[in-house]
Amino acid sequence: MATWQTTVVDVMKSALVDKVDRDHRQSDRAFLRRRIVVGVTLVVGAVLLGVSLSVSPGDNAFYPLTIALAATWIIGGFVSGPLHLGRITFNGSMRRPIITPILIGLAAGGVFVVGGLVVRQIPPLADFVANVLAHATMGSMGLIVFITLLNGVAEEIFFRGALFAAIGRRKPVLISTLVYTVVTLASGNPMLAFAAITLGFVLALQRRSSGGILAPMLTHVAWSTVMVFALPPLFV
Q1: Which residue spans within the chain are E strands per DSSP?
Q2: How far apart, in whole angstroms, are the C-alpha atoms of residue 132 and residue 137?
Q3: pLDDT tens by residue, 122-168
Q4: Is the pTM of the predicted complex or chain greater than 0.90?
Q5: Which DSSP state fits 58?
Q6: Left, alpha or beta for 188 (phi > 0: left; psi -120 to 50: alpha)?
Q7: What confidence tens digit (pLDDT) does each residue in 186-218 have?
Q8: Alpha-carbon distances, residue 184 vs 21, 27, 65, 150, 235 (angstroms)
């Protein structure tokens, strides 16, 4: 039992705490360019987010708007400069993070589902969650799943990729999480902002530990999958 617990602790430290050696330096000119691209992308993305979530559930405009939002994050992320997949230490060797991030995402999804059971008992908060989930229950499920997962990938390319790199060495976990939360507030939904600050902090820790976007991307996709299938039935 003790050995199993020790292994779990070691795996979590590798995924969220320990930092791998890496050299992702940029010239001052490239760093400034990244910051400018990130700043412009943040403004455009925040506007698109607010507009996309302001449309009525079932409105076909929701789909192109959210796809445009994902495209904005992806294009801004790659145009800003080089992005890296990252590695973590596992069993004494450096590997691409795959299984551990997926398990973290599923676990986070489970925690949010339990939280949903509590939130649905609080009418004002339940209404905020139901407003977001209405797009899933009243629209095309296949398109909603695609868009949800696409935006999860897109957000990691930008927020834990381009934005994290643009912040520099001083408190990138804290700053990137706060910026992610502030941008999410453009949706006008405080429950989405709560999800952004809690999940975003975990994703930022993964980015710092691995030095890349693969781990947070897989965690975000796993979490989103749980949310899109498990959460709507709780608020119907």
Answers
A1: 88-90, 93-95
A2: 10
A3: 988 889 888 888 877 777 788 899 999 999 999 999 999 999 999 98
A4: yes
A5: T
A6: left
A7: 888 899 999 999 999 999 999 999 999 999 999
A8: 32, 31, 15, 16, 21
Amino acid, single-letter form, for residue 8: V
Q: Report how far residue 205's alpha carbon sits from residue 168's, in angstroms, rounded to the nearest whole number.
A: 15
Nearest residue to 13 (alpha-carbon basis) of 84, 85, 88: 88
Type of residue found at 218: L
Find, among 36, 38, 35, the residue nearest to 183 by Cα: 38
β-pair partners for 88: 95
| Phi and psi torsions of 24, nearest 5° | -115, 40
Residue 129, judged by CB atoms within 10 A of its CB (0-12, 13-18, 19+), counts as buried
User: Among candidates 51, 50, 46, which has minimal Cα distance to 72?
Assistant: 46
Contact 147, 63 (CB under 8 A): yes
Angle in degrees, 0-180, between the axes of helices 99-119 and 214-230, rounded to the nearest 10: 40
